[in-house]
Amino acid sequence: MTEERTSSVPAPEELEELQEAIEAHLEAGAPATAAAQLEDLHAHDVAEVISELSGPGQQALLGALPTEAIAEIIEHLKVEDAAEISGLIDVDRMAVVLDRAPPEVAVDILRHVDWTVASHILARMADRRTIGELLLYPDDNAGGLMAPDVIGLRENLTIGMALSVLRGAETSRENMRQLFAIDGDGRLTGVLELSDLVFAGPEKRVQDVMAADPISVETGTDQEICAQLMTRYDLIALPVVDRTGVLVGAIAVDELVHVARDEATEDMFRMFGIGGEERAFDSLVASLRSRLPWLMLNLGTVLFAGFILNLFSDTIATATIVAAFIPVVLGQAGIAGTQTLTLIVRSIALGDISERDTLRLLRHELLFAIVQGVVVAVLLGLIVLAWQQDVFLGLVVAGAMLINLTVAAGGGVLVPLGMRAARIDPAASSAVIVTTLTDVFGLLVYLGLATAFLTQFRGA
Predict the structure, then answer these.
(1) What is the 8-class DSSP label of residue 429?
(2) Which of 419, 429, 432, 51 is nearest to 266 (CA)?
(3) Numbered ranges of CATH 1.25.60.10 in the chain
(4) How far apart, in whole angstroms, are the C-alpha atoms of residue 154 and residue 89?
(5) What is the pTM for the complete model shown?
(6) Quick one: CATH architecture of 284-456?
(7) Among 129-143, 328-342, 347-361, 384-398, which is the least confidently predicted range?
């Protein structure tokens, strides 16, 4: 397998045909033939093929692939899939595979396998000291995300000497995209790119071409903050230092892409009461544990809404047309509240807003809700008037809609910001809370207005 060849990149339909051919060879007991068909493919495509195979098929194919190829493939697998595959490979061979993979990839895989198995693999690895140190960091902070294989050039080196160091460095070209300058004690003092060295005079020193006072994070910094910094300052790599400022690694931008994707997925799931770790084919017990508690909470709120409906049963019995517009008033407010909520939660995740922005945000969203509410309420009131020829019913429906849209906007701002102030993740089922707020308040306002104007309705 090679990543340089672009002529062997298959179209989706070709990859499907290849998948079928690979499965046929494996069923026929010819894993070597199957492996030969993958030789010219990009590692990403091979990873996709392997992830679609059954356990026995994966084991047979992996046994026919060289160790170097497996080390390249696992970089393109999801961590969960790579961890499962590691259980199909002999411990001694898996140790060699992880030694040849980037340290941060090896650590991610070891974190996702049984610790007994992981300890046996780690004991057989040549680079077990580096891997063991990385395993001490949680996987959701800078220390757990960083790659320790970074190039730190002494700031007092001449450009000619620095280039000689790079030529002798046993590291990948990717690690040379971003270079770091350090002092005599290893503390980070600057950042530079390879082009800065190439185009500078050989008599100059690293400190003459580096960008001083670089943006960096300590090993314990949360991954969301790391992602925000890299996005805000358009960094291709984020240096990681220890408490004394010594350079210990760097986080590549592609690593933060995965973090941003995972964080966005987790926030989206949690907003709607689904565990961020749940997968489509998780066990029944795992799915129940993830979703059932929030469903039970929602059941309580729905029953409360039913209780409110029962309080106004006489109103509904007298003017049955009132019931026809309940879903309209509640549904529109629910959508509006979720729109505001999604915007606020996303802004919090990106670091765009803080607690001091609460009043300004609230004013902005309330003003928007009033303008939007007037448009929707007038349109809805005219529809009710044309349909039922009842001015008072139209005014009640339109008024309830305007008030509930305003409440939805306020809830969409205050709920996530309030949860953050209470040190609760703003994405943690905030949608359930906002929807409950708009449903309960919407029923009270709409049916309360309907009761107040009941004698004015036609046919009442």
Answers:
(1) S
(2) 429
(3) 12-145
(4) 42
(5) 0.58
(6) Orthogonal Bundle (1.10)
(7) 347-361
